[in-house]
Amino acid sequence: MQPADGLPKNIVLVGLMGCGKTTVGRKLQTMLGYPLVDTDHLIEEKARLTITDIFARRGEQAFRELESAVLNELSAPGTPRRIIATGGGIVGRRANRRLLSQLGYVVWLQAPVDVILQRTARNRDRPLLQTANPRERIEKLIIERSPLYHEIADLELETAGLETEEIACGILESARYHFTRS
Ligand SMILES: Nc1ncnc2c1ncn2[C@@H]1O[C@H](COP(=O)(O)OP(=O)(O)OP(=O)(O)O)[C@@H](O)[C@H]1O
Ligand SMILES: O=C(O)C1=C[C@@H](O)[C@@H](O)[C@H](O)C1
Ligand SMILES: [Mg+2]
């Protein structure tokens, strides 16, 4: 049976670092009243290390293994509805993309390079951007990952110039429309 809020599945937020997954996820949590989980936070809990420390001490591959493990746990049958914010690189593995598609309504949040640079400039907890040329790194990630986000996205949303609340309302409206048709 369709729940009263018209959303039978999770909402899954994907996109590059700084596109607003955590921020928009928090807004959706407030609006819907069910929990937000963030794969980056779950990984930190599981490893008992920050993401920066996982990359520094164990390397990116170890981080990706933890990321896949956390995604598998989130995909266990019978879990209640949630908003799921994901790490920017979670789409790199084909198996992850399959799980994300099955997990719920997938929203790809987008932002131009300048906006991402501005939004990520203030903190240093994104190891992939600790490089001499973060702009070049972001441009490369956009080229590599855009087809992967596109492959699984039910909704693609440009976020620059939009308030978090507008983004969250847009997502809910589109998701409800999607589920009434399916
Ligand atoms: N629509 C928006 N307008 C203005 N600022 C925003 C918007 N969305 C996010 N921000 C700001 O950008 C910064 C990064 O946002 P956030 O942490 O939500 O990104 P993220 O996608 O979760 O990144 P990561 O993949 O690294 O976890 C935060 O300081 C947040 O307040
Ligand atoms: O884009 C990425 O590959 C990453 C994004 C962050 O959310 C973290 O998952 C981590 O810093 C790696
Ligand atoms: Mg985040």
TrEMBL record:
It is found in: Cytoplasm. Pathway: Metabolic intermediate biosynthesis; chorismate biosynthesis; chorismate from D-erythrose 4-phosphate and phosphoenolpyruvate: step 5/7. It catalyses: shikimate + ATP = 3-phosphoshikimate + ADP + H(+). One of its GO terms (molecular function) is kinase activity. Its EC number is 2.7.1.71. SUPFAM superfamilies: P-loop containing nucleoside triphosphate hydrolases. Binds 1 Mg(2+) ion per subunit. It comes from the Bacteria. Its cofactor is Mg(2+). ATP binds at G18, C19, G20, K21, T22, T23, R126. The keyword Nucleotide-binding applies. Keywords: Amino-acid biosynthesis, Aromatic amino acid biosynthesis, ATP-binding, Cytoplasm, Kinase, Magnesium, Metal-binding, Nucleotide-binding, Transferase. Belongs to the shikimate kinase family. Monomer. This is Shikimate kinase. It comes from Luteolibacter flavescens.
